[in-house]
Design goal:
Layout (H helix, E strand, L loop, with lengths): L1 H14 L31 H15 L3 H14 L6 H14 L3 H14 L4 H13 L8 H21 L9 H25 L3 H14 L3 H13 L3 H12 L6 H19 L1
Helix pairs in contact: 1-4, 2-3, 3-4, 4-5, 4-6, 5-6, 6-7, 6-8, 7-8, 8-9, 9-10, 10-11, 10-12, 11-12
């Protein structure tokens, strides 16, 4: 998830040219007029802000969440009116999620959503953290699951209406780019329904996630939901499909074999 959020943040930053200094060149006399400008995105307000954002960009790409958090905090502290506030807050939320500090991840994602109510990244972060960290016996289980469900659907709706962050992206490229985000939102809905023990709804959501992003992990989780629902033949078939994948991660292989074994024993009974 953190990588999805980071890639989205870097896509926005790349769209405003933070990797290079802006130029002041003007078109030569007599040249054709430039095409109509795309909707204006966030822009650095000074050379100092640009450099601070570039420093954050470098830190974020380095893979150290603590360094990325510090660099984002530096931008927000020195330039509190930056137009990139929601992007940076989302990136910080993703970094805290990488550190397994889901409480701070939720706090920063909520702050990002308060700054930009149309931030599908923030909505997705909230859905992701709440769905993954709500247990069956939590006293506030229903409240957290209802919030997670709301944020997941909100992320899906916001993504559908979101403009391209870079005008050079084709419509097809933009739709392809959003697929992992849509898959994550559907996966969150599946996890929510697993916690509720609503197996049928969980399977529907897993199928939607797999349609966007056919991850073996999603397929194994769907097999588990099928087996819990008593659909053992379908669970076994799903496990066989996963086990046929070359170079399968050992943990996923072990999970698929265990689910298949349980489904086979359940059929025998």
């Amino acid at each position: 998830m953190k990588r999805i959020v980071l890639s989205g943040a870097l896509l926005v930053l790349g769209g405003v040219g933070l990797l290079a200094q802006p130029t002041t060149a003007t078109p030569a006399q007599g040249t054709a007029p430039a095409p109509a400008a795309a909707p204006k995105g966030p822009t650095p307000k000074s050379q100092g802000e640009l450099q601070a954002l570039q420093a954050w960009q470098t830190a974020a790409q380095g893979g150290d969440p603590d360094a990325a958090i510090k660099a984002a905090d530096d931008v927000l502290t020195k330039f509190p009116d930056t137009e990139f506030k929601d992007v940076l807050l989302c990136a910080e939320a993703g970094a805290y999620q990488q550190k397994r500090d889901w409480i701070k991840a939720v706090i920063f994602a909520e702050q990002a959503l308060a700054v930009n109510p149309k931030s599908y990244q923030a909505s997705l972060l909230l859905a992701d953290n709440l769905s993954q960290h709500t247990g069956e016996h939590d006293l506030d289980k229903d409240e957290k699951l209802n919030k997670a469900e709301k944020y997941a659907h909100q992320a899906i709706d916001l993504m559908a209406a979101a403009p391209k962050p870079q005008p050079t992206l084709t419509d097809q490229q933009w739709e392809e780019y959003k697929k992992p985000w849509n898959a994550q939102a559907q996966h969150d809905l599946a996890l929510i329904n697993l916690t509720r023990k609503n197996w049928d709804a969980a399977v529907v959501a897993f199928k939607a996630a797999i349609a966007f992003d056919p991850q073996p992990a999603y397929k194994v989780q769907m097999a588990s939901a099928l087996q819990s629902e008593g659909k053992n033949d379908e669970a076994i078939a799903q496990c066989d499909e996963v086990l046929a994948i070359p170079n399968l991660h050992p943990q996923i292989r072990a999970a698929a074999e265990n689910i298949k074994d349980n489904a086979t024993k359940a059929k025998g009974k």
